[in-house]
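Researcher: Let's walk through a ligand-bound prediction step by step. First, I give you the protein sequence. Second, the SMILES string for magnesium ion. Third, you return the three-dimensional complex as structure tokens. Ready?
Model: Ready.
Researcher: Here are steps one and two:
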Amino acid sequence: MKLDSIFLKNFRNYSETRFNLNSRINIFLGNNGQGKTNLLEAIWTLINGRTFRNSKFDDLIKFNQKFLEISGEFSDEFRTNYIKFSIIDNKKKLELNDKQVNSRKEIKKIVSTVMFDKDLSYNLGRSSKPRRDCLDSIVSNFSNEYRVLINNYSREIQRRNEILRTTRNDEVLDFIDDRLIRLSNKVSLNRRLWISRIVNLTNQIIKKLDKNISINLDFVSDSLEITKLKKKLKQNRGHDKILGHSSIGSHKDKITFLADKIDVFNFGSEGEKKTIALAIKISEILMLKKLEDRFPLVLVDEIGSEFDEKRLKFFYNFLAKINTQCFITASNKQLLDLKMRDHVLFLVTNGDCKKIS
Ligand SMILES: Nc1ncnc2c1ncn2[C@@H]1O[C@H](COP(=O)(O)OP(=O)(O)OP(=O)(O)O)[C@@H](O)[C@H]1O
Ligand SMILES: [Mg+2]
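Model: Step three, the predicted complex:
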């Protein structure tokens, strides 16, 4: 499926705009603050029913407006699909061919996306949580079940923390722990499995960039065995009551990538980290191709400043080879030197987007 055209109404700094897209590579140029990332966010939100930014739904609506709409026409050689996302009266609504859909699964059957921005290696290099979140969002892109699972788990942890901070009632905690143990075990087992698959693919890609690097997964978790997890949760309950939050469970899983037995995102060179981050993103694209038998649409936000020419070339050559639709933003024309075939250029200025060649 390719996105043929998009319509935005009151989305971020866009008042009302409609334009056609190229079926291969779309490059959005523009100065800072003009609406390039907003445009990628609109495409991503339309397909995923939520934003990739850390913002509330209402933040997506243009300042001083009350509703928003994003709609797009997608097609392949067999059919055309019309997807519409709107927020009206604080309620979001996703429609496929004029029928409301309640699960993102329906849209996923038709089209998927991968988002690549310059913060990836930075987030992977921060503490355990941002790294876990980053990888969780990649795995959630592969598996809707996993996404539901981690949402359920995080709701259960919030419930437990609430009791730890308020009534501290042991009967309620026993009840919550019973459910939490099953969820936590499932999250960690799935997480380990998916991330080890990512690591396998990532190593195949790294080889092409730098023969001297290969990574191993070091996955440390209390939740891989139910009996051990049960025991630890019980042991730590008193401590958790004092802390007011849960100290055991999948939200504490430690994921480390080792290169030559060294934690690469803590001690590796900047170049090594970037190579691995880039390879992880390419793995996400290849894994989706494996799972869904079609490439995802690829959204790339401003990676020109993060990666050097060798890595950029590698990535853009990869994009040029796979026959998928790409949306790439850049604030300077450096990117154009890479001579991507079959591309269309757009200029984004102050919430408006015009094709320039
Ligand atoms: N809800 C909103 N209503 C109106 N404007 C908004 C809203 N949310 C964000 N903006 C504005 O959108 C503008 C463009 O944001 P965007 O992140 O797309 O810029 P950009 O072109 O990607 O810039 P950069 O090159 O710096 O990344 C910002 O100036 C921001 O103030
Ligand atoms: Mg931007």
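Researcher: And what stands out?
Model: The mean pLDDT is 94. The CA atoms of residues 4 and 140 lie 26 Å apart.
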